[in-house]
Write a structure and sequence with these properties.
Layout lengths: L14 H4 L3 H12 L8 E3 L2 H8 L4 H10 L3 E4 L2 E4 L11 H10 L5 H10 L18 H17 L19 H4 L4 H14 L8 H14 L5 H13 L23 H9 L8 H6 L5 H12 L3 H12 L1
Antiparallel strand pairs: 1-3, 2-3
Helix pairs in contact: 9-10, 9-15, 11-12, 11-14, 14-15
């Protein structure tokens, strides 16, 4: 616990914060500045205490919103403010050391998430001696394999698509989003480019697109979709990228995979655009280009028709 906090002046320029309602902004800034939070962004506090100190009555609803938006994680009575470290004005070696010490107050499962999210900072942390001695990286790899297995184990031809989530179980922010219809069109489009080879979760895939557009503030649909097509056609990523749920996850350097794909796609030697494909004798080059242009206009239906033309 510190007597004062210094927050980056860019805090209020965050697109996510700009879109929050006044009471949402109040609770969000409270989480960053209250006396209960430590240098790792973790606090042990009840929603009732939050309500008492802020005067906000419906704290539980706001907590759920922040959780759905991947800004707040709740675990065993503890809360982790995901972007707390990001918005601090300094990440000096002394601060990094203090973050490592602060993690000892939290459950190990929550510590794992913090270390993974900020792996680039190389936060020093020694697991308790009563913790099963499995290196962090190995535990994370095992967890990712389990998640990938859940997604790939069943074939759509053998297992019917899952029932869509009820409106009551979907976040209000998504249900009211201006990108919701577009998000479902994206989910349907992504299913076609996988040729039905992975388990289809329409609601989850649509919500991922909505987060890219609404929360992350990404305006260039063409870049996103072109990068997805590039990754699905890349020898390495085609076997390691099966679902839109990977797009907003971060690599070891803390970079979202969608940005990794966009960067690699734009590298001259590796770019797989229509012109390169034509020179290589790719008969589907024109269909690729037409599909991407349709996506830029937001016409996923037309784009899917282009994908269908490529399948032959």
């Amino acid at each position: 616990m510190a007597d004062y906090r210094t927050i980056s002046s860019g805090f209020w320029n965050d697109p996510y914060i700009e879109e929050l309602e006044p009471q949402e902004k109040l609770l969000y800034i409270y989480l960053f500045t209250c006396p209960h939070i430590n240098n790792a962004g973790i606090l042990h506090i009840s929603p009732r205490k939050m309500a008492f100190e802020t005067g906000i009555k419906d704290v539980a609803t706001l907590i759920k919103k922040f959780s759905d938006d991947d800004k707040l994680v709740e675990c065993e009575g503890y809360f982790w403010v995901v972007n707390f470290i990001k918005h601090q004005s300094s990440t000096s070696p002394k601060i990094i050391q203090s973050i490592g010490k602060a993690l000892h107050a939290a459950p190990v499962s929550l510590v794992d998430r913090v270390l993974k999210h900020y792996k680039a900072l190389q936060i020093p942390y020694a697991y308790p001696i009563d913790t099963l001695c499995i290196p962090y990286a190995e535990r994370e790899l095992e967890r990712e394999r389990e998640l990938e297995g859940e997604e790939e184990d069943s074939s759509p031809s053998e297992t019917p698509p899952p029932e869509p989530e009820s409106k009551e179980s979907l976040p209000k922010a998504f249900l009211e989003s201006e990108f919701r219809e577009e998000a479902y069109e994206f989910a349907d489009w992504f299913r076609t480019i996988t040729s039905g080879s992975v388990k289809f979760d329409r609601d989850a895939w649509a919500r991922e697109w909505d987060k890219l557009r609404r929360i992350d503030g990404r305006k260039d649909k063409k870049d996103i979709c072109q990068a997805i097509e590039w990754a699905r056609g890349d020898p390495f990523w085609s076997t390691n990228f099966h679902s839109p749920l990977k797009l907003r996850k971060r690599n070891d350097d803390g970079v979202m995979y969608i940005d990794v794909f966009i960067e690699k796609m734009k590298q001259p030697k590796r770019r797989n655009n229509a012109a390169d494909s034509t020179e290589d004798g790719n008969p589907h080059a024109k269909a690729n280009a037409a599909a991407i242009e349709a996506l830029q206009r937001g016409d996923f239906a037309e784009s899917m028709a282009g994908v269908g033309n490529r399948s032959g």
